[in-house]
Design a protein that fits this description.
Endonuclease III, domain 1; two-stranded antiparallel sheet; globular; alpha+beta; 315 residues; single chain; 45% helix; 14 helices; five-stranded antiparallel β-sheet
């Protein structure tokens, strides 16, 4: 089963930037590949968890998508658009850079970059369990082994793509390879929740922020960080600041030239200028941190408010 369709991004967008983002993103290392014309990646289709692999290339100002594994063009189009953050109108994105010159400079440096989301809230939740108290590269290897053992392998173009196991596959497997017992139990709990519809992307998107976070924290193994991660990176929200992520805070500190960690008030004050793209700015700050070598050297300890030196953040 192969279908093709086009998606027309609105506002500044670069497929090259998306491919660099996704294919350099540790959790996606086993499910995404850069190609000469764009990239390929694989995921479980929203709702049915049907395995799908797609090739995405540029065709003029539009994106040409070839999807293998489904005939549901509308569902595939919606999900690819959400993953690439082109389901939102980005026309006002450039205007944001005029309101905040620091962010404007970053936007110019990473031209056309938009967040590339996790493929679904389900996969974002599973990654949160796999990555808990585990180095990202090790968690990515475990994810890859799970995908090869229990997922589906699809071929799109010349690329073989291993999709992450569906909820049903996790529940029916006698063992989850290389996954500790506690994490295996939690993954199965998430699989059961996904089948019940508790991780449905439209359900999560329809909830108010605090309601959604409370809903997600009811899931076994999902704490504050993972709940925020599922909401922002799994459901693909555009205007949810990700300050619970230490690397976003460190990226803010770097971009604004602060000598010590920003206060909560400084972060919230700056974020008011970023509406309605606070998620996009949060990702931009994290990308800037990564590209400038600070990803693994962040300071997560909150600095004392009594420190005599604090650089000024433009209000």
């Amino acid at each position: 089963m192969t279908v093709t369709f086009e998606i027309q991004p609105r506002g500044p967008y670069s497929l090259t930037a998306s491919a660099s983002f996704l294919c350099g993103f540790t959790p996606a290392s086993s499910s995404a590949t850069r190609t000469s014309g764009g990239m390929t990646f694989g995921f479980g289709l929203d709702g049915s968890f049907e395995p799908v692999a797609v090739s995405v290339e540029e065709r003029g100002s539009a994106l040409l998508v070839t999807a293998v594994g489904t005939t549901d063009v509308d569902a595939a189009r919606r999900q690819v658009a959400r993953i690439l953050s082109i389901d939102h109108d980005g026309e006002a994105w450039a205007e944001l850079g005029k309101r905040d010159p620091v962010i404007g400079a970053l936007m110019a440096s990473y031209d056309g970059l938009r967040p590339v989301c996790f493929y679904s809230p389900y996969e974002a939740a599973c990654w949160g369990i796999l990555a808990a108290r585990t180095p990202m590269k090790m968690a990515a290897r475990v994810r890859a082994m799970l995908s090869e053992a229990l997922g589906k392998t699809l071929v799109v173009g010349s690329e073989r793509i291993h999709t992450f196991p569906s909820p049903r596959a996790l529940l029916e497997a006698s063992t989850l390879p290389h996954v500790p017992a506690v994490k295996a139990e939690r993954l199965r709990g998430l699989a059961d929740a996904a089948i019940r519809g508790d991780l449905d992307v439209e359900l999560i998107r329809s909830m108010d922020r605090e309601v959604a976070l409370k809903h997600l924290r009811k899931l076994d193994g999902v704490g504050e960080w993972t709940a925020s991660h599922i909401l922002v990176r799994g459901a693909g929200l555009t205007d949810e600041p990700a300050f619970v992520e230490p690397r976003v805070r460190a990226g803010f500190k770097l971009a604004y030239g602060l000598s010590i960690d920003p206060t909560e008030d400084e972060l919230l004050s700056a974020a008011e200028r970023w509406r309605p793209y606070r998620t996009w700015v949060s990702v931009l700050l994290a990308v800037h941190l990564s590209r400038t070598g600070g990803w693994d050297a962040i300071a997560t300890r909150r600095s004392s408010r009594s420190s005599p030196t604090r650089a000024h953040v433009r209000r």
